[in-house]
Amino acid sequence: MKFKTIIPIFLLLFILILSSCGSKRPDKNPDSVAEAEKQMAKKAKKSNREAKKAKKKAYKIYWNAQSKEARKSIKKNKRRNKRIARHKRK
């Protein structure tokens, strides 16, 4: 790369870094610890919800990909294993 192309790229990256800095946006930064914890809890709740949705979607895709016989077989084996485990506990 030429030196002329490196300078504008460097300047653009520098501007992007400065604009995303938290100190430039004091309205987004919480004033107290309680507010910060509240924001963190809200973010965690949102990410948990998204993870749950993704897990549900993956589960649905997996079971739709299985054949009917395979689904029946897995169901029967699961019930059988539950029964065996229940009798082992007694």
C-alpha termini separation: 75 Å
> What is the chain-wise order of helices and strands?
HHH
Give the structural class. Answer: mainly alpha
Our estimate of the beta-strand percent is under 5%
Low-confidence stretches: none
Q: How many strands, what sense, and barrel or not for the largest sheet?
A: none
Helix content, binned percent: over 70%
Number of helices: 3
- The average pLDDT value, as a whole number, equals 86
Describe this structure in words.
The chain is mainly α and 90 residues long. It has a domain of 56 residues. It is 80% helix and 0% strand. The chain contains 3 helices and no strands.
Question: How would you summarize the topology of this molecule?
Answer:
Elements: H1 3-19, H2 33-65, H3 68-89
List its traits:
0% strand, elongated, mainly alpha, 90 residues
Summarize the structure.
The chain has helices at residues 3-19, 33-65, 68-89. The protein is mainly alpha-helical and 90 residues long.
